[in-house]
Amino acid sequence: AIKEFEDTILTPPMTITKKGETYQNPKFYDFIDQISPFVRPSYYLRHHPSKYVFNPPLVEKILSIFAMHFAPKLEVIIKACFVTDSTDLARPITVFNKDLFLESVDESEKAFYSLFIGTSTFEQYCGRKTDEMQVVKAMMSDNHIQLKPK
User: pTM score > 0.85 for this model?
Assistant: First the structure.
């Protein structure tokens, strides 16, 4: 996705050198001026230029890639990594086991997942999954209690 959008997100150099002299690059300032202040304020970009400035179409493409390819794969891997402590049968607690998860991913992807599991996005995702599992277990427990003969 980044390669596809590179010509619109790659920040030109701030200065250019010609015949040993350094000049301000007008392409840099044109690039900065065309960026919406909602993406990144131009004042910030002028003083702290970054290699790329992601635009809304690229962000949408990345989100689509995550939703279509990454999320389903993550869903499959993550299910087996929730562990329930049922020491207190009346109040079992389900938690996500990060070590088990990292052992479940391909070696080539471990560096990515090691960083990804530390993000708030991943924490929120695990929290939602844990809550879903707790609800399902509670429903199963309630059904089990109701189905017992009197």
Answer: no
